[in-house]
Write a structure and sequence with these properties.
Shape: globular
CATH superfamily: CheC-like
Radius of gyration: 16 Å
Largest sheet: 7 strands, antiparallel
Strand content: 25-35%
Mean pLDDT: 82
CATH architecture: 3-Layer(aba) Sandwich
Structural class: alpha+beta
CATH class: Alpha Beta
CATH topology: Chemotaxis protein chec
Number of domains: 1
Length: 190
């Protein structure tokens, strides 16, 4: 058992599309495009100044969803959404805004995985500097994969990553059942 390269790419495309279809409106991206990135270990160490992340776990399976951003871009977005200079200049508010997005996307991922038979418990969203990613424990489960994407439009860019790990190859094989979830309703937080 195990996934071949094409199956892995198809699963990653499903995750990419799920996130992409739910991210653009929240971050006011006009005409976003998304690219998968192949980074070496040194380049991957710090993708942006800040990150928010969610863990979805059960004893055999772990999924780590991270969304990387900087306050300069986020400040412009918050300014457009809320038209309130107090919120625009409040770093805690901006971080809460991104934690809420991370929480919503994590819930969406959890829903999709539950539909294909992978029950996970989701953490609360965490916020950290991008540099804290250097110190996060690496999961020791044997099977799985990771990918990093950059989502960009004319004004802003963000990174996100998904890392899946399992001690059971059958759980990874279940991911092949994910199809077309990005076409479900978009999140609407405004």
């Amino acid at each position: 058992m195990g996934l071949n390269k094409l199956e892995t790419e198809e699963i990653l495309d499903e995750f990419k599309n799920l996130i992409y279809s739910n991210l653009g409106s929240y971050l006011l991206l006009d005409d976003p495009y998304i690219d998968s990135l192949v980074l070496d270990k040194m380049e991957e160490k710090v993708l942006s100044n800040w990150m928010t992340f969610i863990f979805l776990n059960n004893p055999n399976f772990s999924l780590y969803f991270k969304l990387y951003y900087n306050h300069t871009d986020l400040k412009k977005i918050v300014e457009q959404v809320f038209k309130d200079t107090k919120k625009t200049n409040d770093i805690n508010f901006m971080n809460d805004y991104m934690k809420e997005l991370s929480n919503t996307l994590g819930g969406r991922i959890n829903e999709v995985l539950r539909d294909i038979g992978i029950d996970l418990i989701m953490s609360s969203p965490f916020i950290a500097t991008g540099f804290d990613d250097l110190f996060l424990d690496k999961d020791k489960k044997k099977f799985g994969f990771k990918n990093i994407w950059k989502i960009k439009d004319n004004n802003y860019s963000f990174f996100f990553s998904i890392e899946l790990k399992s001690s059971e190859p059958e759980d990874i094989d279940k991911l092949k059942l994910m199809k077309g979830y990005e076409r479900n309703d978009e999140i609407d937080l405004f």
